[in-house]
Structures are given as C-alpha cells and as structure tokens.
C-alpha cells in the first residue's frame, strides 16, 4: 500500500501570552485509506476566554477550522475538502473530537466548527483532534507528497431569534418602522417591504438611504443563527492569507508597507493588532479564501444587540450609551497592550490589539463586547457589511469556496457583487468616538476598494 509522504507545515497563528488568540500545534497527518482516498489530519488547539452558557444569551464561542494543501514542488495552495456526512457530527464524518469538545462539519466540506460540548468558561486546550480529509476528491493521488496548513479563526455563535433593527434613537439614517420612527422587529427570514406606511414595512430615518422596494428572503436577515468572527481581522491573519496565495494576487492584495519580509514569508509588524488599510475587496478576498462570507447590515445589528432584547436608544455595541471612560492604552497595538480603565480610546492613531479590553474579569461595558461576546463591533476599525439599500439586495446566503479568481486576483462569489458597486456599507465607527452606535448608518452605501487608515472587517458563516 502506498503512503502519502508528508512534509508538514505546522502553522502557528499566534503564541502570544497576552492574546486571546487561538494556537494550533502538533499538526500531523496519517491514517491514510487508499480505498476511499482519505487521510486524517491531527492537531491540538487551545484558546483563552472561551465559554458556553445556557443563561441569557445561551451561546458559545468556537473556532472555524479549515485546511489548505499543496503538492510538493508546486506553489499553489488549494482548499482541502473535509468529509461531510449528514448531520455533520464528528461520528458521522469520521473525525475525532477530544473530550469536552464538539466538531461540526459544514455541509459544503469547507471546514469545521469546534466548540465546547458543555457549559464552562476559561481556556480550552484540546489535544489529538482529527479531521478526515478527502484528498482524492481534491485531485491528490495516493502517492503524492503534500504539505498542509491548518487555520483556526475564533468565532462566536449568534443564536436564532427575533431582534430589533434601530433603537428608537437618533442615529444617522437608522432603520425604523415605515409608519412611525420606532424600532423595527425582525421576526423571520421572510422578505421585507421597504417604504409605504404599513407598520410591518421598513424605512429609515430621513428616508435617504433606504429606497422603496423589497428586501428578498434570500438576503440574510439575522433571524437565523450564524457564526461571527470574535475579533476583527488581525495583522497575523492577513499575513497568513498573503503567504498562502499566489504572488501575483499578493501584489494586488497587500496594502503598501504592510508586513516585513517577502512573499511567501511576510511577517506582520504587530500580529495581534486589528488589520487596517483594508479595502472592501481585500476583506472579501480573505473571506472567500476562508470559506466565510460578509455579514449583512441586519446581521450586524443582531450580533451587537442580541435576540429578544429591548434596545436602549443610541446604544453602543456594549448595550448602553455610556463610555466607561476615555483612556490611552499602554503598548498600543502590541501583544502587551493593556488598558488601565475605559473602553474608548483617546487620541490614538492606529487600531488596538484584537480583544485588548477583554479580560477574565471584564464586564460587557468595560470590554466593549456585544450581547454575544463579540469584540470591537463599536469602534476600532469599520465593519464591512452588505447594505440593505438596493445595491445589496441581490446578495444571497453564499459562502466563499476557499479559492480566488486567479486572473482577477480577487474574490469570485457571484452574489457578493463588487466592492465598487454600492453593494456594501461601513458600520460601527472607528478609533474616534463618532458613529459608534449600533444603528448608525451614516455610511450605509459606500464604494470601497480604497484603503483607509481605519477600514478593516470580519466575516460570518451561516450556522447549520
Ligand atoms: Ca469595529
Ligand atoms: Ca471563490
């Protein structure tokens, strides 16, 4: 029986003691089955400040895990197909989940979620997990030599449930009911009529940025459950991305001056700092490559506000209207970044470290976390969302497939539109203290391949 000859590239996303970030280790491959053409990818994984609760928000965090591979002596990394068999459990799919963990495979085989199997909080450290990789369907022969990279992205489970768009506040162009200026309840994924005067129709303050028509059922409303990245895209994640795509695409996707070294060995200057200077098409390329998707404006408000919550007018992502204090952090952007007090920065010019305000004892207000525990949704760098305005209404619930368009050097999910076609909105504000409110829609239509000093983003994936 022939064996795959394995040359391992164990990719450590970070190993910073102060970071909340995930660490993967001891990545290996074995258990080859030459009849069904699969192997088992083995790994350890740990991260801090993990939780699962059945109180209130009834949710948990976890990681989205995916694998890239390339044949020896080739340069192109490809997305690995993980075995999926309904209903996607480890047992059904032939994976091994360590005690205390659950592994759920996405039905498209692009990756798995790994999360706590029981309530608890603190650090998780799981060893000897295994994923079944169907290398045969990826065009790898039984005797090919391959390298693999395993990626893990921290995410938060946002539960299914009704929620409010708008807060009864005075935010720019906020969502409201068509008949009066009050919050609009989203109670399903059904199509929504925009305009008119029915209480069941949607409108926006000033009416400027919400054209009459229909937001179809295919536009994700945020009612259904989804996973949202816990943090904004970090410099390390973006460097990993650049180091795993072809050099021609890197030339288009690398913000000027980002990272030291050269392709495919770029080193992020501040690995745990939120990535800025990203154009919308940069964010979309990373999300396509990660088999994630952008969130909609609706999902943004749901992820901040929570299901079945009565909003506080003009609330921030942390659920009230007060800053816990304006402060200047120490070691801004570094892995050692700390804050003496306060959840809003004063006079800083670069983004903070991802999750810098979250500690073992932080509250929602002091950490700036959303109802579900998602960080920096108000402030730091702007969030890329699919606008509810006409340009974004053709967006459907489609995830990236892990591969970019090599000739266009860009994302290529058809329903994602284009970064320059009034398809996207910026939400959540930046390192200033303006436009941080959950329902602020000042930039509800934007054309954006431009790289601003305060533009970044994150992705989501529909739960199943
Ligand atoms: Ca943000
Ligand atoms: Ca693609």
What do these coordinates show?
This protein is 9% helix and 26% strand. The protein contains 6 helices and 23 strands. It has helices spanning 90-93, 235-242, 247-253, 280-289, 297-305, 364-367, and strands at 5-6, 23-33, 38-52, 61-71, 78-79, 101-105, 112-116, 120-133, 145-158, 163-165, 175-177, 184-186, 192-194, 202-204, 213-215, 226-229, 295-296, 326-327, 344-345, 383-386, 424-427, 443-446, 460-462. Strands 1, 4, 5, 6, 7, 9, 16 and 23 form an 8-stranded mixed β-sheet that branches. Mean pLDDT is 91; it is low at 1-19. It binds calcium ion (CA) (2 copies). One calcium ion (CA) binds at residues 232, 376-377, 379-381, 383, 428.
Largest sheet: 8 strands, mixed
Q: Which distinct ligands sit in these coordinates?
A: calcium ion
- Percentage of helical residues? under 10%
Per CATH, which architecture of the largest domain?
Alpha-Beta Complex
Succession of helices and strands:
EEEEEHEEEEEEEEEEEHHHEHEEHEEEE
Which features characterize this protein?
mainly beta; four-stranded mixed β-sheet; 26% strand; globular; binds calcium ion
Question: In summary, what is this structure?
Answer:
The protein has 464 residues and is mainly beta. Helix content is 9%, strand content 26%.
Please outline the helices and strands.
Layout: E1 5-6, E2 23-33, E3 38-52, E4 61-71, E5 78-79, H1 90-93, E6 101-105, E7 112-116, E8 120-133, E9 145-158, E10 163-165, E11 175-177, E12 184-186, E13 192-194, E14 202-204, E15 213-215, E16 226-229, H2 235-242, H3 247-253, H4 280-289, E17 295-296, H5 297-305, E18 326-327, E19 344-345, H6 364-367, E20 383-386, E21 424-427, E22 443-446, E23 460-462
Parallel strand pairs: 1-9, 17-20, 18-19
Antiparallel strand pairs: 2-3, 3-8, 4-5, 4-7, 4-9, 6-7, 9-16, 10-12, 11-14, 13-15, 16-23, 20-21, 21-22
The protein binds calcium ion (CA) (2 copies).
Residues 232, 376-377, 379-381, 383, 428 line the site of one calcium ion.
């Amino acid at each position: 029986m022939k064996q795959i000859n394995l040359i391992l590239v164990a990719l450590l996303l970070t190993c910073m003691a102060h970071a909340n970030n995930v660490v993967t280790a001891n990545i290996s491959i074995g258990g080859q089955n030459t009849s069904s053409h699969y192997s088992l990818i083995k790994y350890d994984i740990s991260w801090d400040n993990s939780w699962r609760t059945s109180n209130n928000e009834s949710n948990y965090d976890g990681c989205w895990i995916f694998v890239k591979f390339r044949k020896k002596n080739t340069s192109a990394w490809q997305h690995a197909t993980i075995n999926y068999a309904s209903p996607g459990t480890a047992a059904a799919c032939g994976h091994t989940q360590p005690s205390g963990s659950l592994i759920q495979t996405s039905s498209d085989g692009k990756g798995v979620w790994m999360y706590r199997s029981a309530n608890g909080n603190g650090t998780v450290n799981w060893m000897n997990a295994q994923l079944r990789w169907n290398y045969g369907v990826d065009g790898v022969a039984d005797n090919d030599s391959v390298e693999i990279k395993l990626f893990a992205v921290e995410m938060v489970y946002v539960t299914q449930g009704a929620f409010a768009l708008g807060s009864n506040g005075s935010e720019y162009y906020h969502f409201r009911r068509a008949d009066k200026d009050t919050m609009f309840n989203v109670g399903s994924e059904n199509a929504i009529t925009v305009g008119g005067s029915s209480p069941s129709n949607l409108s926006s303050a000033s009416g400027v940025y919400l054209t009459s028509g229909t937001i179809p059922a295919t536009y994700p409303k945020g009612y259904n459950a989804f996973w949202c990245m816990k943090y904004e895209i970090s410099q390390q994640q973006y460097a990993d991305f650049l180091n795993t795509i072809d050099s021609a695409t890197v030339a288009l996707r690398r913000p000027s001056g980002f990272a030291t070294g050269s392709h495919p060995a770029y080193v992020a200057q501040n690995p745990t700092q939120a990535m800025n200077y990203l154009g919308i098409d940069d964010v979309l390329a990373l999300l396509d490559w990660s088999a994630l998707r952008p969130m909609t404006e609706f999902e943004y408000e749901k992820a901040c506000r929570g299901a079945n919550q009565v909003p506080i007018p003009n609330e921030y992502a942390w659920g009230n209207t007060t800053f816990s204090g304006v402060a200047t952090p120490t070691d801004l952007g570094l892995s050692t970044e700390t804050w003496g007090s306060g959840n809003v920065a004063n006079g800083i010019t670069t983004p903070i470290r991802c999750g810098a305000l979250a500690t073992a004892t932080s509250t929602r207000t002091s950490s700036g976390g959303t109802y579900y525990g998602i960080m920096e949704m108000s402030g730091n760098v702007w969030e890329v969302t699919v606008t509810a305005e006409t340009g974004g209404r053709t967006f459907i619930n489609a995830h990236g497939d892990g591969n970019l368009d090599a000739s266009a050097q860009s994302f290529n999910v058809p329903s994602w539109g284009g970064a320059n076609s009034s398809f996207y909105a910026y939400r959540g504000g930046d390192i200033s203290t303006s436009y941080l409110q959950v329902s602020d829609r000042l930039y509800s239509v934007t054309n954006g391949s431009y790289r601003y000093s305060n533009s970044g983003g994150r992705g989501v994936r529909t739960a199943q």
